[in-house]
Amino acid sequence: MIIVGLTGSIGMGKSTTAALFAEAGLPVHSADEAVHALYSGEAVPAIEAAFPGTVREGSVDRALLSERVVGNKAAMERLEAIVHPLVHAAERDFIQGSEKAGAPAAILDIPLLFETGAQARCDLVVVVSAPFAVQTERVLARTGMSAEKFQAILAKQMPDAEKRARADFVVDSSTGIEDARRQVAAILEKILK
Questions:
Q1: Which residue ranges are tagged as binding site for ATP?
Q2: Which residues bind ATP (predicted)?
Q3: Which residues pair with 140 in a beta bridge?
């Protein structure tokens, strides 16, 4: 089974592209969704122990946790030491399940794939990209987003040009959903031969 890493900076259309791979019949594991599940499940006791008062009604309150860890390198590392091994375990279970189901390939949707070295767990990498003006328009349209927040997020992410240079395939998400669907189909035709 081929393991495909899927990544892209904020606002590039990665989630939409992941949905297109799923639509094409491939299993998709979202690291973000895995974290959401852990925040209302397995990670709750450890996070509450490390960051008391961040759990409300049995789930991690992301806003409260964010206040405690954003801008605090040691706190962020403590959180990552709790969450990352659990996400990796969920990813391994997903890969095993996909192999057992006979999937020819499986998609690992990982926002910070290159930044965390996750490409080492993949056979190839697809980067979703769009021109900066399109990315900016998409991100600033999000509720609660500001230009300052956007810049802070970009500062933590590898530049888009570098991601594209490291990719095995690039999906340009700026040309519409139908074109993105065609690009995904073309990638699958190449990798599943």
A1: 11-16
A2: 11-16
A3: none
Could you please state the CATH topology (level 3) that the domain comprising 1-27+105-193 is classified under: Rossmann fold (3.40.50)
Euclidean distance between CA atoms 166 and 5, whole angstroms: 12
Residues of the chain with CATH 3.40.50.300: 1-27+105-193
- The 8-class DSSP code of residue 9 comes to -
Q: Which residues of 152-187 are buried (b: 16+ CB within 10 A; e: fewer)?
A: eebeebbebeebeeebbbbbbbbeeeeebbebbeeb
What does the pLDDT look like over 152-168, one tens digit per residue? 888 888 999 999 999 99
Does the pLDDT value for residue 71 go beyond 90?
no
Smallest CA-to-CA distance from 8 within 183, 154, 189 is with: 154
Q: Could you count the other beta carbons within 10 Å of the beta carbon of residue 138?
A: 17
